[in-house]
Model the fold of this input.
Amino acid sequence: MQYWMMKTEPGEFSFEDLVRDGKTVWDGVRNFQARNNMKAMKKGDQVLIYHSVTEKALAGIAEVSKEHYPDPKDNPKQDWVVVDIKPVRPLKRRLTLAEIKDTPDLADIPLIRQSRLSVMPLEKKIFDRLVTLSES
Done:
């Protein structure tokens, strides 16, 4: 199993929207590195959902329910892909970007190093650390 973080603007689509809908097609990714990360996702992988822009906080845990396939809204020559995800559970409390930045052992995670990347891999120990921090 692999671990990931996906960023979304909560005004466009929030973790609460995912819970309400029960699943979603994760689309709209137009960055090659993020696309390649989506291509590496496997069914059952765990995903932290991060609300960017206005909230800047981790909101919940989702799971990859269908591996990558061509984005139906795109020209096939572009090779953009989507994955399907479903909610697992909300975090006990939102973990803010400020709190993450204030945690020394998280200083080198992709959210900090590559802040514009919308889909990023996480090591299991980092995924677990973020979840644990959200429970404190």
About this structure: The mean pLDDT is 95.
